[in-house]
Amino acid sequence: MIKKPLLAIASGVIFVVLCLGQSAVAAENHKEEATKHALAAAESGSKGDANGAAEHAKAAKTHAEAAEQEKPNAHLEAGIKNLNECIEHAKMGHAQIAGESAEAAATHLKAAEKAM
Asked: Which domains does the chain have, with CATH numbers?
């Protein structure tokens, strides 16, 4: 009789641990992807490609926001702010400044990856 409730409890604990583990992995993947796109935005900006900087910054922002939803972090918040600046400057055709904002975002996103 006691075996069934213990088995149910053990199964529940294992399920919760697996779900939490997957959430942490998903957050890390979003941070990595955000960083990759922020670096690509910075490179595009430095090459004078405002459109490329904006596109990569938008992709980075999507991943950074998803990571922040899963596990909030001050560096993610700062990175998102920098990505917004990058997008705005890119819309105005200021590729170099957009690239600098993206570089600042990448710095924060890298810090967020380490802060796990």
From this structure: 28-115 (1.20.120.660)
